[in-house]
Amino acid sequence: QFSISTRPAPAAARTGNIFVANQSGTASLVDLETGAVEHFQIGPDPHNAAVSPDGRWGVTVTFGPMTHAADTHILNGNKLIVVDLAKKQIARTIDTGEYRGLHDRAFRRGHPNRVLVTAQTSRRVIEVDITTGAIIGAMDTRSERSHMLAVARDGNTVFTTNEDPGSISRMDVPTHSFVASFPASPQVEGIAVTADGKELWVGETREGLVTVRNATTG
């Protein structure tokens, strides 16, 4: 026999903040304790947000605006926005110049002020110092529509999913060089790398699958 308690579980303490990118053109900072929300004007079509390991900075990027040419749609966003989470204000806007269609982003482990960002239109992953605004380097993915990224735990290897024609690229961050490409299905999107760096977990959107791949051989 067994019994089930009907007493409600104690409420978990809620502290800290959530930093959110809104594709409508803003970003939001939510205070979990009070429920208060701060909004920031970002620019066209912000996609994805990240918080620095020390909790000091929030970053997001502009994916658009979009240019329509024939049957193609070109994303031109080239702004990386850095928000001071303590002061609740935009600290700086970094123009990435020729690197456009900024989409996914992640802080590089071991380098707390550096962010890796996919520049989808330019077929690159760029490494940016958010304190100086300098672009440290750019890695050629050798594929179109490099959309999402995953960074190995040591911060030295980055992978991208390339939606068209469907592939995965592996790059070496210290040398900013291309290493390998692995075939995947068209519209491949989500990607994560396991803590030991041995496996990639990949969302194959068109197929409705999550595939688990060897991170070295694909």
What can you tell me about this protein's structure?
The chain is an all-beta fold and 218 residues long. Helix content is 0%, strand content 57%. It has no helices and 20 strands. It has a 4-stranded antiparallel beta sheet, with no helix packed on it. It has a 4-stranded antiparallel beta sheet with strand order 10-11-12-13, with no helix packed on it. It is globular, with a radius of gyration of 19 Å. The chain starts with 16 loop residues before the first strand and ends with a strand. The mean pLDDT is 93.
Number of strands: 20
Distance between the termini: 50 Å
Kindly state the mean pLDDT as a whole number?
93
Shape: globular
- Kindly name the structural category: mainly beta
Oligomer: single chain
Question: Counting H and I runs of at least 4 residues, what is the number of helices?
Answer: 0
Q: Quick one: biggest sheet?
A: 4 strands, antiparallel
H/E topology pattern: EEEEEEEEEEEEEEEEEEEE
Specify the helix fraction band: under 10%
Q: Could you list the spans in which at least 5 consecutive residues all have pLDDT below 50?
A: none
Our estimate of the beta-strand percent is over 45%
Q: From the alpha carbons, calculate the radius of gyration and give it in angstroms.
A: 19 Å
Please list the strands of the largest sheet in the order they lie side by side: 4-5-8-9
